[in-house]
Amino acid sequence: MRLDVFLLEDYNYQANIKAIPVVVRISSIDNIEIADKIDLREIVLLQGDEPVFGGYFRSSLGWEKDTITISPDNPHHKMYDICKYQDSDLLPGKYNVNIRLLVYRYENGKRAETVNLQAMCELLIK
């Protein structure tokens, strides 16, 4: 299983706008069944190795009945807004978006394992 994070095309990422949307994609080279809901563990902006904006979260969901199947031709996409998790102001600059998720994987409809996924991408705030 793989996690990628992307910025929105044609979106103007500015410090004075209280929205920093990003899209995550969970993909796999095999068909895999996962829980429909995914635990967001961390969504932060880093400068170097220092977190400067965003938040960390405790696992809150757990195993559930509703599942989806991801495959090479059918990845799962989800959008997050980093500003939803912090109220302070953001300064213009270059950042790394760091996202960690906890995914619940099933095999034959039964609980199999939890999988920690992490991804980063660069972001320029004007």
User: Mean pLDDT, nearest integer?
Assistant: 89
**Structural class computed from helices and strand pairing:** mainly beta
Low-confidence spans: none
H/E series: EEEEEEEEE
Proportion of residues in extended strands: over 45%
Note the main sheet.
6 strands, antiparallel
CATH class: Mainly Beta
The fourth-level CATH homologous superfamily is: Intracellular proteinase inhibitor BsuPI
Helix count equals 0
What is the helix content? under 10%
Number of domains: 1
Radius of gyration: 16 Å
Give the end-to-end Cα distance, rounded to a whole number of Å. 33 Å
CATH fold-level name: Immunoglobulin-like
Q: Which overall shape is indicated by the principal axes computed on the Cα atoms?
A: elongated
Q: How many strands in all?
A: 9
CATH architecture: Sandwich
Outline:
With 126 residues, the protein is mainly β.
Question: What are the defining features of this structure?
Answer:
single chain, mainly beta, Immunoglobulin-like, 6-stranded antiparallel sheet, 3-stranded antiparallel sheet, 9 strands, elongated
